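Hi R.,

Here's the chain you asked about this morning:
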Amino acid sequence: MTTRRLSRPVLTLLVVLFGYLVLPMAMTGTALALPEIGRDLDASGTALQWVVTGYMLAASSVMLVAGSLGDLLGRRKVYAAGAALYGVGTLTASTAQNILVLDIARTLAGVGGAGVMAGGAAILATVFDGSARTRVFASVGTVAGVGIAVGPTLSGALVGAFGWRATFLGFGIAGVVILLATRLMPESRADARPRVDRPGVVTFIAGLALLMFAVTQGAQAGWGSVQVLGPLTAGAVLLVAFWAVERRSDHPVLDLTLVRDRRFMGWTLGAMSTAGGATGILVFLPTYLQGAGGLSAGDAGLIMLMTTAPVFAFPSVGGWLVGRGLPARHLVAGALLLSAAGNLWLALALAPDAGPARLATPLLLIGIANGLVLGQIDAQAMSIVEPERVGMASGLLNTARGGTGALVLAGFGAALITLVESRVGDRASAGEVTAGRHPDLAAEFTQAWQITVGTVAVVLMLAAILVRHLLRPRTVPVAVPAPAEPAPVQHAAEPAPVQHADAV
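And here is the predicted structure, written out as tokens:
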């Protein structure tokens, strides 16, 4: 691999860390603006949820391709292109006058976010190695934790003081800053540069996007409708075609040996599960607190600090535990069980009049669980991948994480709408309830929340068991020597017959 290193790699680290600060901050912060966006643009239900879901769907669909293209075309080039798209999409979102334009702009920003997230991890993996790489990824986890923690509070303050457009304007300007700073970074790519796997790129992006689009439409159009079954079937067919294309390609966008690597897939499942345990709460709980609890955006943001603040503090704790000899697989499994306990506790504690004291323990447990493994999973997964495939591996890991987040958002929102509809009898009214517009139906909204987060808790328990199994150490068969042939039994010589004198 040919890599032109800067004499001051710390500049590269700072640029990448800024991206890992801004993008998670924007993701968690946007949820605080949803109720005001809905009132301002007269939107609710799936159209309103798409402000968040569209971003994550686009990001997760393109993440794998962005990582692989970075290996081939240049990781800095892909990172810069991602920053440009993110900035343009987010600045456009700040000026949107209807929900359709806002959703399209957010989807474009998600495509750009894929380049920033996948490209950033791959760049760091090529600039740093050994123990320095482990420390760098721990710092990535810490900075991303800061973004997740500060996002709701900052966005809540911006929304309360200046309106929701100010949130997107600020994050759009940050995207432009990232783009300008990419000139400080080194360029790197794999030694071999085969042509781009276009059939793989097309089938993967289209298949995954259609699949997740179908899930997002389920609650709005009905799970048996043509609008859902059509994209769902087409997406499944395209993903099967993608698998067949990659098996026969000599330059695949996804090397299937990564998928067949038990330990890499164990880390990937760990990333997916930890994302799934918190994403729905980070995005939808602020709307519940404002709609059912009657809180302001700023007050809801402060309560969300109980989940996001631990994500700032605990990545270093996770690194310290692993450094002191705790197997990383035990750390991940334990974090998943903590998240399961937090979700289950939240299901029991949630109520329209639940104050910070009542919500503190479950939200803290979920935040601590996320913080413990943030950065650790990426460092462990990258350590078992060859340098030439770090972009692909980073793309796959972030695709799995982001795809899970998008599916959880779609499934979480769909579950809330479906469960509320079963109680109020009308899908349109259910969409308005989940958008925080009917505080008189807070009891129905609460029951839907309790069932949904309880289900998440059960899934996390099962994931903890499976992750621990996949990450078990490889066992080397010990050769057992064959048993020796038994030695022949040596019989004592028979005594000579006694010679009697009369026989002579």
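One quick note: Strands lie at 2-3, 188-189.

Cheers,
M.
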